[in-house]
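Quick illustration, no need to memorize.
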Amino acid sequence: MDPGPGHKGGAEDWQCPLLCHCGLVDYQVFVQGSEYFQLEVCLLDQEGKVVAQGTGGRGQLQVPNAHLWWPYLMHEHPAYLYSLEVRLTAQTAAGAVSDFYTLPVGIRTVAVTEHQFLINGKPFYFHGVNKHEDADIRGRGFDWPLLVKDFNLLRWLGANAFRTSHYPYAEEVMQLCDRYGIVVIDESPGVGIVLVQSYSNESLQHHLEVMEELVRRDKNHPAVVMWSVANEPTSFLKPAGYYFKTLIAHTKALDPSRPVTFVTNSNYEADLGAPYVDVICVNSYYSWYHDYGHLEVIPLHLATEFENWYRTYQKPIIQSEYGAGSVAGFHQDPPLMFSEEYQKGLLEQYHLVLDQKRKDYVVGELIWNFADFMTDQSPRRVMGNKKGIFTRQRQPKAAAFLLRERYWKLANETTYHLSAVKSQCLENSPFSF
């Protein structure tokens, strides 16, 4: 089943068609087996009332006075979901047999301009995290109690988005994002594309198939607002231009309703894939992987990088990764690397520039990382990657409180945010004393 939840993306002169409050849900149902069947389709609101209905395997439902799916903290009633019910009646030797399938559906639009990311025609600013499906005891993989804990922490943090770095997460994660209003940049497992051989025709064909699988699985989730085809490829290599042009065009053909990007750490002048993305997603680690200890250089480096990217491509920019490692309980003044003070100070320097540029063309910031996670052993890692704002056990470092203050401030600046939402979250805070 393939309902299209009223998405739209791309055009710079685009105007939200949902301002008239009439939502459109396109659907297509695939049936295997007997050709002797009837299909009935209906859309129910949260009270169980039928608001639209149709027949046949393909069509469009019109929803008068539609309740739109809004992100968390962007509206007083975020994450509104309808239920799309498909009922099949087939003729068998024993007589008529009926069955039905229900799918949660959100009605919302997505669009990108030269300097904005729009959801339902309103500017949206990503303030969130990058994650991993990882914790101690279980290790890597899906864990229901851990997922509920993480979503409670995201709400406490005031985060409205995350990227599935660097692979598709479990379907249950996507379902919770739909219900909680957490916006998702859905990323393929296209990581480690570094060698010239990585851009071979064989690799490209496999990557095209991977995107087909990802879009087929996640296309019906309103929380998914953008596809990311890769993370930190060597997009300056000559074969990268054709590779990403083909890959991004293919992804847009699969789903014209969403923008497409990949996450880069290449130089703006050398990146051969950037011309084909809708949003520039940039990773940088100033004063961590170089200029060790010199937090004062961050504002100049970061502002210059943003200006160069925007001047070259005239596209909105997301700071898709930034951060520093810290070992919980390590304190040092003046700040030294791996202390909580250094991590917090580095974030503050980034925020100075983000606050300037988000007035113009920066449309988001995603911290690396939500929580510490395990890695292969190496001299660069202290029992795993320690760039989390929470420990691997989900306890907060100083940076978590800094980001919480920032994200709630950003949320309060949006037109639709109500103080009652924050009050409710504060009452349920896992870290209020």
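The chain has two domains: 23-105, 110-418.
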